[in-house]
Amino acid sequence: MGLRVQMRNMNFMFLVFFSWAFSSATASVTYDHRAIVINGKRRILISGSIHYPRSTPEMWPDLIQKAKDGGLDVIQTYVFWNGHEPSEGKYYFENRYDLVKFIKLVHQAGLYVHLRIGPYICGEWNFGGFPVWLKYVPGIAFRTDNGPFKWHMQRFTEKIVNIMKAEGLFETQGGPIIMSQIENEYGPVEWEIGAPGKAYTKWAAQMAVGLNTGVPWVMCKQDDAPDPVIDACNGFYCENYKPNQVYKPKLWTEAWTGWYTEFGGPVPHRPAEDLAFAVARFIQNGGAFFNYYMYHGGTNFGRTAGGPFIATSYDYDAPLDEFGLPRDPKWGHLRDLHRAIKLAESALVSSDPTVTKLGNNQEAHVFRSNTGACAAFLANYDTNYDVKVSFGNGRYNLPPWSISILPDCKTAVYNTARLGAQSTVMWMTPVYKGFSWESYNEETASANSGDTTALDGLWEQVYVTRDNTDYLWYLTDITIGSDEGFLKTGNYPLLNIFSAGHALHVFVNGQLTGSAYGSLDKPKLTFTQNIKLRAGVNKLALLSVAVGLPNVGLHFETWNAGVLGPVTLNGLNTGTWDMSKWKWSYKIGLKGEKLGLHTVSGSSSVEWGQGSFLAKHQPLTWYKTTFNAPGGNGPLALDMNSMGKGQIWINGRSIGRHWPAYKASGGCGPCNYAGTFTDKKCRTDCGQPSQRWYHVPRSWLNPTGNLLVVFEEWGGDPNWINLDQRTTGTVCADIHEGQPTMENWGALGSGKVAVAKAHLWCPPGHKISQIKFASYGVPQGTCGNYRAGSCHAHKSYDVPQKNCVGQQSCTVIVAPQFFGGDPCPGVAKKLSLEAICS
Ligand code: GAL
Q1: pTM, entire model
Q2: Which atom of ligand 1 is least distant from the CA of 124?
């Protein structure tokens, strides 16, 4: 054992000399086996993804500050090509796409940037970040050894690098960018396509390195990333990841903090304890850099959601919620983890870990520097049992599936399964009810009318729309002879429609007869229904609706959308008619879109109905109202529970697609943090809308007269739409006696372990008005549904009430003398508290 460790350390010392040098001595970013090296100093870097177009520039400073307060060193973002080059050669870097401003704000806050240029970015973003026009470049094939693709990819990558250089944003120029990324998770694609994939990988790496940014490049999920590009891991766990060369550090570019929501799917959650455990596992195995994907997920405004079927909210169960508020306990628990890691940093960067067994399923990982620093991680991988382990001269209690961090090899300051941070339950409180709505009926399009184009057969939707709108009408006339048998029997013909997706509304003679839609896993759909036809000409109008373009999959640029057929009508005198080859008329987009009904000027160009003329539960209806901004500065969202499917605009800006009528299915269940996490574990909201609330950025509102426009496809009742404010409802603490705490660090030297304390706080301007629950003993449940257990101190409420009510923050010591004595000696106890902030 001793020899093995010694050998390893020698090996390590040897490697230290062979680091990649990228630039001058003044400002440099290099790496070696152990870490990213900034200006000659090895660092353990803590990073989090914040995607600039998924929030507003007004939100950026606060998000970045909260990331800094949460203990982050680095902000990671993708670069969103289709936002920056919406049509070929026409660039856009304003507003939510002001990349330079975003990076400068990060710099001002004193944080670094990891810039993932891609330009393929996946990210549940429309078309994986590619502009749709790119698909129609002659001879192109995406993400392979293809001339036109490589030309455009290089052109855009250069464009971004040149902007960064011109602004002096690379670390070597005194800026914050310490790393970039080329491509994204290309390894699996390369594996499938073979030789051209390998050639493309080599080309991409060389092209990127040739841009001389002065800072390292990363390729994630790319086992064969060519030197000097560093390969990196993405996943829920990455502790066993090994870079492809020993002289590269171990990077985790995406530590998934939760998962995305899809329309029709439940809402994913990842327990803070498991996320902290995964990160601690990565660090104890020699990890050098990890990035939370996402730290703030935000919102897929407009039509930026990919998928198809990715929801408008990209909350991701991230440490900062969609609205930019801390999600606790996750945010606070990770902040504490980061403090513990930073206390250990000097030992961590000095060696590889020495691993020893502490039990069947328990290990110690120890790091030492030659100046005497020592840090230990004590791990219990068992999913069921608490285990007491001996380490050094101490005894340490390790809850199931947890790691304790001892930054000095003696004092446990943090355990991944013991929350020191408070939990909060957020409420959506109505601040504006009873909008006074007006409605306008979108007309059903009809074949051969002036504004349509007739074509033979069925055409692919994106080819026709170029994704300038979600909507494409497929229109034809069905002429029924007066001798058709069904006219007498009433056995109406059966209409069969096969569509490549994503949703379809079928109108016969102007009436909606039915709708069909797919899902993320199965975007294709079929529509089968008997339709009422009359003798003579019947108008068939199919409104095909796209719900975001695919963002991942082999050659996803070739996947189709729209009614591609066959379309058949069955049960006629001559049997079945195949309508697929008929002449169809096409109309791109809605009339209301053309009129700009979502804008102030457009909305005043038509007559709207109100009062008794207000359309309710009618398909294809536009609604508008005006309202004054509510007071306060809390985040706002529209409660769309009473609506079906469509889009929403505030003052002409699209806040995204709404689809509360798509209810979540797929399985929800109880959630235990212990055990391997998957995106199917810990989901909520089954049977409920996948997304009920839609973020309205404060900065999009004027003090008075805001125009709110909703386009509704299915039919709904707008009178129940509310504007809600997100507020902190209740706050909870769940503190075990003797649990590791940062306060132990202060007690160092005295040989004592600090007594555990419960801390509660309300946001600024709010106070604790009531203690809703308090139990010292063995209380059960989680924040929002605690109950007393078999052991409960009857004086549990006294101290919390005295210390907390009327205060913005308070502390309660978790020890028997504060609760009228020990209610069950010999039993491990904790204090659970729930308080209301008002
Ligand atoms: C990763 C991908 C990210 C994102 C994530 C899921 O594989 O790199 O862009 O799509 O999956 O949220």
Answers
A1: 0.95
A2: 10
